Amino acid sequence: MRLSNLHIKNFRNYEELMVDFHKNVVIFLGENAQGKTNLLESIYTLALTRSHRTRNEQELIQWEKEQAFVKGNVQKEYTNVPLELFLTKKGRKTKINHMEQKKLSSYIGQLNVILFAPEDLSLVKGSPQVRRKFLDMEIGQIDSVYLYESAQYQKILKQRNHYLKQLAEHKQTDELYLDILSEQLISHGSKVLFVRQQFVKRLEYWANQLHQKISQSKEQLKISYRSSVSGEYWTDEQTVKKAYEQEIEKVRNKERLRQTTLVGPHRDDLSFLVNEKDVQIFGSQGQQRTAALSVKLAEIDLIKEETGEYPLLLLDDVMSELDDSRQLHLLETIEGKVQTFLTTTTLKQIKDKMTVEPEIFYINQGQLEGEDV
Q1: Strand 91-96 to strand 99-101: parallel, antiparallel, or no bridges (unpaired)?
Q2: Alpha-carbon distance 7 to 69, whole Å?
């Protein structure tokens, strides 16, 4: 999978930009606050219809402009797919092959991307919310059913929490409605839980291989899905559902007192063990970063395994955060198979480690200088 061109208009600090990409490694070079990250953000947004930096889509549209758009042509093994994303004050509109898509799940997955930014190095030591978001974004790219079930779960969760508060304030007394909401929550939540568990199992397989390579076979990495629903491993969705029903029943009174849902995917987390020790608690910063790097790079092979195509890799000024050894392993992993877009303020240390000639664009105040601009 490759992105052969990009066309953006009224996006962040770019009034309009059209650029073609010819090589597998593309470097956006420039000082800070010139628009390098905005370019990576536009590619990410084209793929997933939303930014990784803000939940407010209006922030992506230039000041006093009515709309912005991002367009690109995705080259796959057997076909070319034009993608278009339009952002307005009222919402977004997506097109595949110039045909509007009514469902988000029909659009997402046409372009798969993996973003690796300095904050991703805190994937291991950061909050559970960071890891849940990671799971939702990555699984959603390769599983449209998961995307739907996760959205439905969040919708029911919001309704259920609101109703629990109303019950506590005696504004509502209908326990039957709470049972209906619980049943719907379990129905969607059990599907989310099962898919997450299966995903983490495959992620661990690829991540451990990379972790061993980076640590020169000194360390083994284990990743586990820690759920608020009891049971270490579920064989199918029905097993999850039964466990979920039992857990919800156990905390019924506590939920009434706390006025919130205490069990489900929104409460879950990941654990990382290096040589059987919890790296989140006992690991050094180096071990935590190696684990995070292994996980992010593992996604490349996992997505290839799922879709038959390698994803795009977006590296947002992450090279400066890695030591020479980790830089080398990162470049060895991606070169020759993954189209990579990389932002940096300097080529020092990077170019010497590359075995392929990169395509370099110089960015200055939202303007590009380079080939085919």
Answers
A1: antiparallel
A2: 8
Does pTM surpass 0.85? yes
35 labelled binding-site residue: yes
Question: Which regions in the chain score pLDDT beneath 70?
Answer: 232, 349, 370-373
Is 33 annotated in a binding site? The answer is yes
pLDDT of residue 371: 53
Give me the pLDDT at residue 14, please.
93
Domain stops at, among 308, 328, 350:
308
Ramachandran angles phi, psi of 316, nearest 5°: -95, 90
Binding site annotation covers 161? no
Q: Annotated binding residue at 80?
A: no
| pLDDT score at 88 | 92
Q: Is 161 helix (H, G, I), strand (E, B) or coil?
A: helix
The residue behind tokens 């536009």 is: 42
Residues 6+ apart with CB under 8 A from 319: 327, 330, 342, 344, 349, 350
Note whether 136 and 249 are same-domain residues.
yes
Stated as kind and residue range, the H or E segment containing 97 is none
pLDDT of residue 232: 65
Same domain? For 227 and 146 the reply is: yes
| Contact yes or no for 58/32 (Cβ under 8 A) | no
Q: Is 32 annotated as a binding residue?
A: yes
Residue 191 in any domain: the answer is: yes
> pLDDT digit string (tens) for 239-287?
999 999 999 999 999 999 999 999 999 999 999 999 999 999 998 888 8
Total domain count for the chain? Answer: 2
* 42 lies in the same domain as 156: no
CATH number of the domain at 23, please: 3.40.50.300
For tokens 């470049």, what's the residue?
331
Pairing of strands 25-29, 359-364: parallel
Pick the last residue of a domain from 267, 285, 308: 308
Closest CA relative to residue 315, chosen from 338, 283, 348, 336: 338
User: Containing domain of residue 264, as a range?
Assistant: 127-308
Same domain, 171 and 296: yes
Annotated binding-site residue? 97: no
Residue 329 falls inside a structural domain:
yes
Contact 247, 263 (CB under 8 A): yes
